[in-house]
Amino acid sequence: MMEFGNRVSYNGKLMQFQRKIDLVALTSRRSCFLFGARATGKSTMIRQQLPDVQVIDLLDAQIFGRLLRNPTLLSEMTEADSLVAIDEIQKVPALLNEVHRLIESRNQRFLLTGSSARKLKRGAANLLAGRARNASLFPLTFPEIETVQEFNLLTYLNTGGLPQMYGDPEAHIFLRSYVDLYLREEIQAEALTRNLGSFAETLDSLALSNGQEINAASIGSDVGVTGRTVLNYIQVLEDTLIAFQVPVFRKTRKRKPISRKKLYFFDLGVTNALCKRSRIEKGSETFGPAFEHFLMLETRAALSYLGNQDTLTYWRTSTGFEVDMVIENHTAIEIKSTDKVTERHLRGLRALKEEIPEMSYGIVSCDNIEGQTEDGIQIMHWRTYLKKLWADELKCR
Fold first, then answer.
1. In-domain check, residue 12
2. Is the full-model pTM beyond 0.90?
3. Inside any domain, residue 147
4. Dihedral sign, CA of 35, 41, 45, 46?
5. DSSP strand E in the chain: where?
6. Is a pLDDT exceeding 80 seen at residue 243?
7. Residue 7 in domain
8. 168, 159 in Cβ contact below 8 A?
9. Phi, psi (5° rounding) for residue 18?
10. In CATH, what number is assigned to the domain containing residue 109?
11. Separation between Cα atoms, residue 161 and residue 266, nearest integer Å
């Protein structure tokens, strides 16, 4: 695999992905923070969509050193009334004070990218007091891939959606290196935790628990750290955009929901590398969890890219009823990797529907036979669901 600017070559075939974020529109009137994990394609997207913009790369040791010592040099390096991109802004949090000043005094606009919000939070950095909008970049999504070639589910489940990894038969090699690079650069180099060894063990354990309810005390006991330390490590993962938590939907009274959150990693390929999984095939033990993970990632990305403020939760009761996704208070989605939806797959949806009948209900699976049950539950193939999701037509009714 070789990278060609904004294109990636797999076996000699060049593919150019059109990302869902429009940087020209985002930065036309005001500055913007663009956060995304390493290798999601932030720099590539800037080159593709803003080819003439000045880029200040804080991964460049010389530039980093100069601005770290004297952030006011930024005014000498840039022109008034222009758009400037600063890559990896979290490397020099103090630079945001100068960015703020230039926005106010010179009508300058900035595109500020970062792969971690932790240093900005910890350093009480100037977050521009609402003068910059926030946007997130995720790994490749279903519609972004479909603009280049037909989306292949098994390919995505195995390689994930990082643009440089997707579809590459040797992706597992690069993904292992990615995980090592993350530990070295994001965690060790920035001193985000004192004990890298216990963090690495906890990271592996959390990856194996991907998509499950997190019991911090149990994981800590296995690794040899406290439950509070595990929670701190989870916060590191969230701040560095490697993972995110999905809280519990609590608006039911008859059936009491459990209280633990679920943790999902931001990319399937990275999760596979951490878990040291062999190839995922249809019908294998790992297919179902990976299929659910994929649809959770797509839903999260779509809500963000479409500017939808709806919260993403899940529902599970102490008696075992569960619904994989509840979007705000209007749509409940169960995910099953089965080729044939049966009555038993609908138990969780019907239990929730009994309590909140006004919501829309659907089940997403690999079943090609679609339709609606007598009590109004929509049965959708995963492709149908994704097309509705990205068309902002998710409500099942």
1. no
2. yes
3. yes
4. positive
5. 2-4, 7-10, 13-15, 31-35, 54-57, 83-87, 109-114, 132-136, 243-246, 262-265, 312-316, 322-327, 331-335, 360-365, 371-372, 377-381
6. yes
7. no
8. yes
9. -95, 110
10. 3.40.50.300
11. 9
